[in-house]
Design a protein that fits this description.
The protein is an alpha/beta fold. It is built from twelve helices and five strands.
């Protein structure tokens, strides 16, 4: 397979809170020119529309509320989008868990030790970090067990379901990107493709830019290149694909999906 032909394979990326999956997803999106679809944006947008503060300590509270309402529909949308389109990188908590090692998808799971995830949250200047991380881990674990019978923190299950598992507790983002491209090569035999080799040669430069300019730079780049799904766009697509679910949502949530708020 050539790197150009790899467009038919979608990438799915998941990770524990604070593991850095978003940074990796954004870099992969920019380097491979794939459209970035971040499911977390849907929850943040809904939280804002419903009057919830998006600060760390409030996030688990809102997640606990909204997951029970839209969680199953959103997860069904994730599977639908990964199987029915191409050339996207979709980031979501369980993007890949239900479909497993599907030939249409190359799935990545990013994890790190609790101590390292907590350290990163503290570096971000969030004094409520430990409370947030404990509550978010607890909410996600309970909800995914309840809805899908998935143990979100089972290393054995993660290894079984994902094509690539990256533990970045002690590694840099350069190493993560190299692991990603090496795994792609092992799966699809890309090493003789000039475009693939060019991408490998750009890893250090892209990471240097990321550290110099941050996530906002990557997001703005993707938006300018039309490689970014706006949360309103995602919500419209969910409504189009699963109208029978939307009509069962509480009126305030339903109004947002129907564009009435």
């Amino acid at each position: 397979m050539t790197f150009e032909e790899l467009k038919s394979i979608n990438f799915a990326i998941s990770g524990w809170a604070g593991s850095g999956s978003t940074s990796l997803a954004l870099l992969i999106s920019k380097m491979t020119k794939r459209k970035y679809l971040y499911i977390g944006n849907v929850f943040r947008y809904l939280g804002q529309q419903l009057g919830y503060d998006d600060k760390g300590e409030k996030r688990p509270e809102f997640d606990n509320y909204i997951e029970g309402i839209i969680g199953k529909t959103v997860d069904d949308f994730i599977d639908h989008r990964l199987l029915s389109t191409e050339n996207i990188i979709l980031e979501g908590d369980i993007a890949g868990f239900r479909l497993g090692r599907n030939p249409k998808i190359f799935s990545i799971f990013v994890k790190a030790s609790y101590e390292e995830r907590l350290r990163r949250i503290h570096i971000e200047g969030r004094p409520e970090g430990e409370k947030y991380l404990l509550e978010r881990d607890d909410v996600l674990n309970k909800k995914y067990k309840e809805i899908w019978g998935i143990d979100f923190y089972s290393s054995e299950l993660i290894e079984k379901k994902y094509n690539l598992v990256i533990d970045n507790s002690t590694s840099s983002i350069q190493i993560e990107l190299k692991e990603f491209f090496e795994a792609l090569d092992a799966q699809y035999r890309l090493h003789e493709d000039p475009l693939f080799q060019k991408m490998l040669s750009k890893i250090d430069k892209e990471v240097d830019l990321f550290w110099a300019k941050g996530k906002d730079y990557l997001l703005e780049y993707l938006k300018k290149q039309d490689l970014y799904y706006d949360p309103k766009e995602i919500i419209r697509d969910i409504t189009k694909e699963f109208p029978e679910d939307i009509i069962k949502f509480p009126s305030k949530v339903q109004a947002i999906f129907l564009g009435q708020k």
